[in-house]
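Worked problem 6 (solution included).
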Amino acid sequence: MNRREFLCGGAAFAAGLPTVAAGVEQLAKPNGLKGFKPLKVKRIRIEVGAERPFRAFHVSDTHIVRADATENDPRKVELAARRYPSMGFGEHYFDEAVHLARTEKAMLLHTGDMIDFVSNANLKYAGLAFGSDDWFVSSGNHEFSRYVGEAREDAAYKAGSWDRVQASYPNDLAFASRVVNGVNFVSFDDVYCAVAPDVLARLEKEVEKGLPIVLMCHVPFYTPKHYAHNMERTKGVCSHLAGTPDELVDTWGGRHDFPEGQEWRDRAVSQRADLPTKEFIKYMKSQPLVKAVLTGHCHEFWEERLTPTAIQYTAAATFKGECTSIDFL
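Solution. The predicted structure is:
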């Protein structure tokens, strides 16, 4: 089976689900997916001091929703059935973005949530997709989510599926670097709004190389404007940003009227930045070699200066039919 045959297998996936769990026949309905539209490519330019100009396609939040009989777990199949109507176009748009990147001889970057939850079928998809092209990626919180919101997700929760997920991804999800045309792409894990204690020391070693740096992670870093926008968008529930000041986190941590229940309450409380995260942000903002920060997570495009030398670019969600083409200069 070639890559396109595999990626176009969504119809077979949907057709096979009703034999596994009751209630999933909705996947076979042609109107089950909402709002199909052509892929929207936002084209931007980032001046980083590359040895020669090159292009990259920045893809994020694809949210592949697959599950099959190999799971021996009806809950995962039912979860796929629930999530597929709103996210099922992720496969189509992902394939289209990859095709365009190939046509334009562009680098491929993904900043997390390639899959919606941990399943055999989702990880198989990720492994084949990432293995068919030269990808550089970071992980998202959904990479390690077993049932989407069934438990408070933290470092211990993530550790329960880390090895299984890592085996399907093309580079170290904790921390990785790659030099392209004199630009150092550095990927690291911040999926629960927290940066691990060893990441700062590892970034310091990358800075010693003296090359311009493009950081890649899933959760964007706090700015007042982005915080205000996200709080308005989520009706005061969650900012979705790493490094949000303690007093702002505590404000929404004290609420008792979260419309989505315990999942959102836990998410708000857990986003208080710990000391390693604060130290990392302070160091990152002091480094003139950091030229850009690429993120995802918020499902919509956002562009704003983060440091004196770097703009943070948050990619829109692939499952919504959007990606970003970046010319690095």
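Discussion: Residues 234 and 240 are 9 Å apart (CA to CA).
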